Amino acid sequence: MQLFIGGACAGKRDAVSKRYPTAHWHRLNAGAPLDNWPAAVVCSLPLVVTGWAAWIEAALSDEPEDDRLRRRLVAALDTLVAAERGGLTVVLILPEMGRGIVPMSPLARRLRDLAGWLAQDAAERAEGVWYVRHGLVRRLK
Where are the beta strands (DSSP E) in the chain? Predict the structure, then answer.
């Protein structure tokens, strides 16, 4: 699994498009199950999974327990890693939310916490981690 992480409008999508020009893109839909990505797999094309922040934000209202929500996210990552063992190339695009001002709203803080935990869990499982800022791409792992 490859992980591209960076702030809003940092150039993550462009970086992934350059490295994986034939990839099929799958956007997680808010409120939809995390495990609906297999329908997006096209032959042996790399699968790019985006939309994590919107999915987490929608899930916050349904799940009051952060640890339980994190376990769901980890299970989704583990399923993607297992699919890679079967030959699928998986690329994740995650937002980096930890460089801004801490929000006043508890819901906005939860979103940032869960996005940070997701990034840590994804980085742990990823073969390569790429940080994108101002269109510049740096390999971290």
Answer: 2-6, 24-27, 47-50, 90-95, 128-133, 136-139
The closest of 13, 18, 11, 52 to 32, measured between CA atoms, is 52
Q: What is the DSSP letter of 51?
A: -
What is the number of residues in the chain? 141
- Element spanning 120, H or E: helix 106-125
- Provide the Cα torsion 140, 115, 55, 57; round to 10°: -150
For the entire predicted model, the pTM comes to 0.93
Mean pLDDT of the chain: 94
Average pLDDT score over residue span 115-130: 98
58 contact partners, CB below 8 Å, separation of at least 6? 30, 31
